Amino acid sequence: MSLRKYLKVYKKFLHTSLASELEYKTNILVDLITAILSLVGSIFLLSIFFQNSGYIGGWKFEQALIIQAIYTILNGITNTWFNPNLTEIVKHIREGTLDFVLLKPIDSQFFISLKKINPSGFLEIMLGFLLLFFCIRINQINLNLSFLTLSLITISCSICILYSLWFFISTTTIWFVKTWNAIEVLRSFLYIGRFPLSSFSFSLRIFFSVFIPIAFITTIPSEVFLGLSVFWKILLEIIVATIFLINSRKFWLFALKFYSSASS
Amino acid sequence: MISNLINRKIFTLLKVQYSNMLEYRVEIALWAISGIIPFFMLNIWTNNNLNESINISETLLSRYFLCAFFVRQFSVVWVVFSFEEDSLMGKVSPYLIQPLNPFFRYFAQHLAEQITRFPFALIIAFFFFIFNPESIWIPNLGILLLSIVSTFLSFLIQFLIQSIVACLCFWTEKASSIERLLFIPTLFLSGLLAPVVSFPTYVKSWIYLTPFPYLIDFPANLLSGNETNIIGGLIMQILWIFILFPLFKKIWSEGTKKYTAMGS
Asked: pLDDT over 70 for what percent of chain B?
């Protein structure tokens, strides 16, 4: 019953935000070119790294491309859902309109995380999938059922971790009001996800798997694609993703206790 | 008399904007942190011994990336985002009445922000030297002054390019997506992520004709004591300013004619 209600509400969200975004059609074209150029740029950067050495952190160029593909897909998802919605939280809190969200008879986290959609991110997701299929061909990966389920599980875990990270930082707005730049810090750290974790020094590797689990976001799914991953790593990723999701929920409810609307 | 007046105006603007920026110290500190990508790149270069293939010693390369970080810190430009917001909100109209080009206001804002940012950049550099004590060096005074000049010129080039893009707001409402498009080549070709010397020859053959390597690579090479053509670089920077400035003046005068205030 309530699931059906949420589905219905979500359909309405999709409809309204798509309608408003499609007002700016040239914008979408510019965003598509941006997405293509940014992928070309990072492959160019990768090719500079590989120009005089066959392996970077034990990864071949063709294998490292898989990481780029997964990063592009995840970045597309971030640009489609997380970025437009979660930057909106900052606005809600600054202008005091969070009151209206809290008064609505639906879950506030649901409303805030899914209200908006930015269709130009879809193009990036498609671009990522194209590269991924290309990688599957050049790395001669044979697709079978267990591989598909494992890769699906790890990628959805990555999405959950990514969402929680964004949501955590946006939630801190309730105390600090302006957190645009904290989001920029997260973005620049996430940039590391474009490269295999093993190409960094030991201390950075620890930092990026314990404090900010970027390691889990792209490296483990890519390892699954190459058939290199170990069972405990996948299990660990599932556990980390669950912890992140549960805590993002708890943190939101905790933060709401401190919310005093704009004029009170 | 006239120059005295302009000086006083600029001085007042700077003072106002500086006190304004000091309000947002945490914001600016976070922003400074979000610029540490060059250090991650350095980590990939040195950890995989990639610097040997381009004949740059590890110390020189780490100095290069530190300088790239510094140059980037003092040449970040966001005028298009401010201008877009102001023009969407209709704030540009009162600015236009004043006997001062509104871009002076943004210019003062950027300079004030750089002054606020300076101590944070120094702190980050201090930590960098703790982790890489062998890369400590003291550039001689002449080189230091020249690189400050060239960093400022790089800032001017980027400010002019973005101001030109910002003027497109008079025609379309979302000029910031064009800026995001232009940011991609700036990111990959300016030398922020990899020094331009490491680029393959098919790129090196034309890149020095574009403004990109003069944004970060040239000032960073100059400051870090890597090999570079000092006179040629400075001439190219000035040349680009002489190309861009009339272009900006033209598009500004065209745009203000086109401008219709919100609601009119």
From this structure: 97
What are B10's two structure tokens? 């600029």
pLDDT at B262: 59
Q: Tokens 């250090």 sit at which residue?
A: B39
Task: State the pLDDT at residue A263.
Answer: 57
Distances (CA, A) of A50 to A2, A123, A131, A200, B49: 52, 28, 18, 15, 11
> Angle, to 10 degrees, between the axis of helix A61-77 and the axis of helix A120-138?
160
| Helix (H) or strand (E) run with residue B167 in it | helix B141-167
A56 φ, ψ to 5°? -125, 115
Neighbours of A116 (CB within 10 A): 21
CB contact under 8 A, B44 and A33: no
Cite the beta strand spans of B59-200 per DSSP E.
Answer: none
**Tokens at residue B240, please?**
């680009």
The yes/no answer to whether this complex scores an ipTM above 0.90 is no
Given B28, B47, B178, which is nearest A30 (Cβ)?
B178
Q: Write the residue in A53, A176, A184 that is nearest to B50 by C-beta.
A: A53
- Counted residue by residue, chain A has a size of 264
Q: If contacts are CB pairs under 8 Å, which of residues 165-194 in chain A contact chain B?
A: 176, 178, 180-182, 184-185, 187-188, 191-192
Judged by a CB distance cut-off of 8 A, whether residue A25 touches chain B is no
For chain B, report the end-to-end CA distance as a whole number of angstroms.
Answer: 38
Interchain CB distance below 8 Å, B181 and A27 = no
- Report the 10 Å Cβ neighbour count for A183: 20
pLDDT of residue B31: 84
Closest CA to B38 of B140, B125, B151: B125
Specify whether the CB–CB gap between A53 and B50 falls below 8 A: yes
Q: Quick: pLDDT tens for A121-166.
A: 888 999 999 999 999 899 888 778 888 899 999 999 999 999 999 9
Inform me whether the C-beta atom of residue B88 falls under 8 Å from chain A C-beta atoms: no
